[in-house]
Amino acid sequence: MRLLLARHAPAEWPQGGEPRYRGWSDAPLGEAGLAAARLLARRLEGEGLATVYSSDLLRAASTAREVSSRLGVPLRLRRGLRELCFGRWEGLSHREILGRDPERYRRWLEDPLGAAPPEGESAALCLGRAWEVLREIRERHPPGSAALVVSHGGTLRLLVCRLLGMPPANHFRLRLDPCGLTTVDWEAERPVLSGLNDLSHLEGAR
User: Fold this and answer.
1) Based on the number of CB atoms within 10 Å of its own CB, is 200 exposed (0-12), middle (13-18) or buried (19 or more)?
2) Tens digit of pLDDT per residue, the chain (206 long)?
3) Where is the active site (predicted)?
4) From 2, 7, 12, 135, which residue has the greatest number of CB atoms within 10 Å?
């Protein structure tokens, strides 16, 4: 089968400025985000999607809904596809966490799979729940079919590493932009990366 993985469209966060760990915090899509989601939906026409699966967080679900409504295919929300939960670090920047919790933050950067933010979850736990959703998708859809997964940067990077047999701790080496499309095809029961972070459908909108 063909598995298409898309990071959600840009959300409209109340705080601007430097990047922050968003995790399970949530925000709606702004006009730019909705426009990007519609371009993603247009790009996926002709892929023969059977179903769209999505994280239940608003920024992902809204992106997925644009695709499912345009293509007329079912949308299934899955909590297992959520972003990694950052606990008490939610909404903070790298600089802010380093200032407040330097020792724990360094441990987490050194061991992202085993360590976890305070009251958050480790990357291993995040990958485990997301992998169960991929297992469901594989069981539901026969060879020759296609399904879309709309999720979050961290979760998708971990899944791509697992699919390709790469150490999940290296997931920070992958770049997945908002509405970027990654394609995995199964050939002789082996997942093969056919495309990574394709943004061609957004040309002219950035």
Assistant:
1) exposed
2) 999 999 999 999 886 667 899 999 999 999 999 999 999 999 999 999 999 999 999 999 999 999 999 999 999 999 999 999 999 999 999 999 999 999 999 999 899 899 999 999 999 999 999 999 999 999 999 989 999 999 999 999 999 999 999 999 889 899 999 999 999 999 888 999 999 999 999 986 65
3) 8 (tele-phosphohistidine intermediate), 83 (proton donor/acceptor)
4) 7
206 assigned ligand-binding residue: no
User: What are 197-203's contacts with CB under 8 Å, separation 24+?
Assistant: 200/43, 201/39, 201/40, 201/42, 201/43, 202/36, 202/39, 202/40
Q: Which residues carry out catalysis?
A: 8, 83
Tokens of 138: 């594989």
- pTM exceeds 0.85, yes or no: yes
